From TrEMBL:
Residues 169-296 form the Type II secretion system protein GspF domain. It comes from Jiangella alkaliphila. The chain crosses the membrane at residues 6-25, 99-123, 129-150, 280-299. This is Type II secretion system (T2SS), protein F. Keywords: Cell membrane, Membrane, Transmembrane, Transmembrane helix.
Length: 306
């Protein structure tokens, strides 16, 4: 009977999810217009900042469609995906595909122990179905969070690389300005000197901005907001303020690049210090274990004699 109830609950949840995907919700005109404006602004920002979904992410059209429905429902409730969207933009993924992947991972985590418990219950071995259900809920929560944690960790590494590229980009722009080029030409020339993924993203953003009639510094500011890199926003603000004065722009860019390198060096030294402390703790633990290994025979001999 328990097996029948669990199987019926799983089948009912699947039917409910399938009906939710296929159902046509009632549309509030005001909410629909606000959502349309938000999607239009998001699409314009994606075009301007050269957002592309990288191949090999496993995001099919069906998954993005389901994730889009889920994202719309969550945004209506008031859940914002600002930081997650910036992380996924750096990784070349979409929020819709990420949500669908998280739901799929949670479903797999829930079904694994439940199916195993059902098989063992039929074979009259060990694990009961209620215990398997509880374990499945715990695993569903863990599996559902894993894609987000992995995305944030990968995005942190790519953002660190992006900041390093921005420092080099500032130096290249300053050198082009020193050669007598204007600000737009200096930005375009500096971005064309490398084929790394970060520099390609900057170059595509500048090219898209020129096609859409947007100033390069405004496009770089949008890119900084999109990927969460404050240095690009600062660069956009500086170029917007002094776009007509090449000398001041050059001095400002050189100072910003130097400040960025000093901050990166401080972060590297801090991480090196943390790793040195970790190695010191590991060495102390090893020494304590070795001393315990030396003292143990003598201590046991004393205890046996007493």
């Amino acid at each position: 009977m328990t097996l029948i109830l669990v199987a019926g609950a799983i089948a009912g949840a699947g039917v409910l999810m399938f009906g939710y995907v296929l159902s046509v919700p009632r549309i509030n005109p005001a909410a629909a217009l606000a959502r349309l404006d938000a999607e239009r602004s998001r699409a314009r920002r994606d075009r301007l900042t050269a957002v592309t979904v990288s191949s090999g992410t496993g995001e099919s059209a069906t998954m993005r469609r389901f994730g889009g429905r889920l994202r719309g429902s969550l945004e209506i409730v008031g859940i914002n995906f600002g930081s997650l969207r910036r992380d996924l933009s750096l990784l070349g993924r979409t929020v819709e595909g990420h949500l669908a992947t998280s739901v799929l991972a949670a479903l797999v985590g829930f079904l694994m122990p439940v199916v195993l418990a059902a098989i063992l219950s039929v074979a009259e071995i060990g694990l009961s179905i209620p215990a398997g259900t509880v374990i499945g809920i715990i695993l569903a929560l863990i599996f559902g969070v894993i894609p987000t944690l992995s995305a944030r960790s990968s995005a942190a590494d790519r953002r660190r690389d992006f900041r390093h590229v921005v420092g080099s980009f500032l130096d290249l722009v300053a050198m082009n300005l020193a050669g007598g080029r204007g600000v737009p030409e200096a930005l375009q020339a500096a971005s064309s000197l490398s084929d790394g993924w970060a520099m390609v993203r900057i170059r595509d953003t500048l090219l898209t901005a020129r096609l859409h009639g947007v100033t390069p510094w405004a496009a770089l500011g949008e890119l900084g907001d999109e990927v969460g890199v404050d240095e690009l926003r600062d660069l956009a603000a500086a170029l917007a303020l002094v776009a007509e004065d090449g000398a001041k722009v050059r001095e400002s860019l050189a100072a910003r690049a130097s400040s960025l390198r000093r901050r990166e060096l401080a972060e590297i030294e801090g991480k090196a210090g943390q790793r040195s402390q970790s190695m010191l703790v590991a060495q102390l633990v090893l020494c304590c274990g070795f001393l315990l290994f030396l003292v143990y025979p003598a201590l046991m001999g004393v205890l046996e004699q007493s």
